[in-house]
Design a protein that fits this description.
Elements (H helix, E strand, L loop, with lengths): L16 E5 L9 H10 L1 E2 L13 H7 L2 E4 L8 H6 L5 E4 L18 E4 L1
Parallel strand pairs: 1-2, 1-3, 3-4, 4-5
Length: 115
């Protein structure tokens, strides 16, 4: 296992900051799922963003390195990616990203995965 040279020996590496985006009326992540996510990423807000016009969106995106999308995730386009501090990953947990990710996002410096 490689170590991060920026992480001093004997300290825990910093977890990436994550924002959750899906339809707010859906309870898609139970406590166990959130705990597993929290083991590898810092969840910035346990309440999902259901719209990029949500009053919390700018604040959360300004800190986010990972966007975790699920059913009802608002459409991701280049303008949303640009609002994120250091967008390294969009992980979509609800199948294909065809209807969720605008084609212009593929020109941005962000990894995209779905499952």
């Amino acid at each position: 296992m490689q170590t991060d040279p920026a992480t001093p020996p004997g300290t825990e590496p910093r977890r990436p900051r994550l924002v959750i985006a899906h339809h707010p009326s859906l309870d898609l992540l139970d406590d166990d799922a959130r705990a597993r996510i929290n083991d590898v990423a810092e969840i910035l807000d346990p309440e999902p963003i259901g719209s990029w016009t949500d009053p919390r969106a700018d604040r959360l995106l300004a800190e986010a390195e990972v966007i975790l999308g699920h059913w009802g995730c608002p459409r991701l386009d280049a303008s949303v990616v640009a609002r994120a501090a250091d967008p390294g990953l969009f992980a979509y947990a609800a199948g294909t990203v065809k209807a969720t990710v605008d084609p212009d996002v593929f020109d941005c410096d962000i990894r995209i995965t779905s499952g």
